[in-house]
Give the backbone structure.
Amino acid sequence: MRVLKALLPVFLLSQFLVSQTAPLHSIDVTDLDRKVDPCSDFYEFSNGAWRASHPIPATMVRWSKRWESGETTKDKLKEILDTAQQDTGAAKGSTEQIIGDYYGACMDESRVNARGIEPLKKWFAEIDAVNDNSGLQPVIANMHDILVTVPFNLSSSTDPHRPTWVLADIGASGYALPDRDYYLKPDARFKEAREKYVKHIAKMFTLVGWDEKSATSGAQTVMAMETRFAEVSLDNVALRDPRASDHNSTFAQLQSMAPHFDWVGYFKHNQIAQDVDLNVDQPKYMQEFDQQLQQTSLADWKVYLKWQVLHASANALSAPIVEEHFAFFGKYLRGQAEMKPRWKRCVEFTDQYLGEALGQKYTEKYFPPEAKARAQEMVRNILLAMRDDILTRPWMSDETKERAMAKIATFDIKVGYPDKWKDYSKVSVRRNTFFEDYLAGRRFVVDDDRGTIGKPVDRTRWGMTPPTSNAYYNPLWNEIVFPAGILQPPGFDNNAVDAVNYGSIGVVMGHEISHGFDDQGARYDYVGNLRNWWTDSDLKQFQQRGACVANQFDNYFIEPGVHHNGKMVLGESIGDLGGVKLAFLAYEKSLKGKPRPPDVDGFTPEQQFFIAWGQWRGDAIRIEEQRVMMQADPHPTGKYRVIGPLSNLPQFQEAFSCKADAPMVPSADKRCEVW
Ligand SMILES: [Zn+2]
């Protein structure tokens, strides 16, 4: 520990909540399903009655109190946008003008419908004007400018070998379905999805005026080209290893991967120097791109590119196109019964593309400084728990522990909203041109990202918008980030007892901290370098422990034949397992030296903590959405995020006095512990 221990800031572990006069609430006992034994199925026990009496709304694919609160945030955003929209005198380039006109244009559905497919024509004409395959570059570059990221993508990326520097990254992204398995696997459900997808593409083409025959053959063309791209794309498990996409390349190397593309013109268009530090995620994929440039006819390329522009901008077009897009991607694929009302979609677009402009207004109104201070304190308490936990791992050598301590000591904690806001004043938005406004927002996202390439990292930047009900860990910056949107009830509640706060947002905080030490995070050192800082034997031990968790999740089914892919959800599962344990340890520590909190309806404070986790995380999820998750989401379903980690924890089994043969108590050889 020697030197590094001294580096570790000493945080005082203090009570998360200030004392208040009003009684604090605890868990909701009416949400429990008491017919179920907590040691058999804690997901049902902790939250079953709530789910039974709160069916998933028609416009949602998941539902829980947490999702409900995320939707309530949108009511608040609507209020802000309605006010901005009414302020017709706002100065051009002011936040009010930009978000107000953007939202106002989006809400003007009759104008959007009256314009029909007219706004798309300019894009189709540009594609039609290409004379040969070697002339595709300017069109693809223009599409990239509006975030139509096919068949490859240019973005910024922190250099994993020099994490203070931003490099240009060429990624693979040639298809529209959620995962490559949809194109390649013989299972009936994928076959059906392919058939429906081809029909959907054809329908979309007829909606933009193509005759039946061209639409049908066009759909086949798109499917064939996307399938070829899917075949050479790495799968989600392979991509979990950051080394799989770590290919520092020179401009000349990129040219030799795909010599039939005009890279000189492409870099010039993007104002990126040829000697820029460059990474190519999937060189093999770029070779396939080149093959298609040589072998696929210009006519087919035109169909493919038209489809991608249409697909990416569908939500900004007229109602029949919006509805058809929803019918396949929302209703069929994810099981969402109904579209969200237009105002909510318009709020979501504003958040997505003008996120910090709207987010600044949101946090001014809804995120008090006290909330920030309390959340920061809580994160620090849980970081302390992680430090204590690592120091006591019997399988880890002092050498590796010392490096882990360095990582904990340098964790950057971001809470609420950025210290420095993005400047939107140059975004041109008008009240009567929603399609162009929509593209302007997407252009801003692209320019904002591109502008960072070839420069030192700006650590003030955020990867989520302030109203987002989510959080993340970024291993390259060794930072954990909690937007204001997640720091509100029911997860983070000023009026709730500590058991509830530690059991919900506390576990989320522990989860993000644990990401620093999951199968991906553990590959980065404390400054964000992608390098091995483990001793060989410690790394082996860590990987064996991870394999236990992967194996546990491989055995979780959502329906016969459809189960979790343990390796794909490994990082999130290590995060949950570590998160629950760390938050529990921090909670226990917070109880020391104080009068013991009262039982609630016979539930001890420890039991309340675990019930809080079940109530926060216990989402109801539509089966269609669960199927998509099994393929493409690194997160397990809500049910297994409750059952999985808790069944590994002796503290849970103790709290509920579970018998040794109970379903939530696996045999010792099956029990997993990473952190
Ligand atoms: Zn996570």
Notes: The CA atoms of residues 11 and 380 lie 7 Å apart. The pocket of zinc ion is lined by residues 511, 515, 572, 575 (CB under 6 Å). The two ends are 18 Å apart (CA to CA).
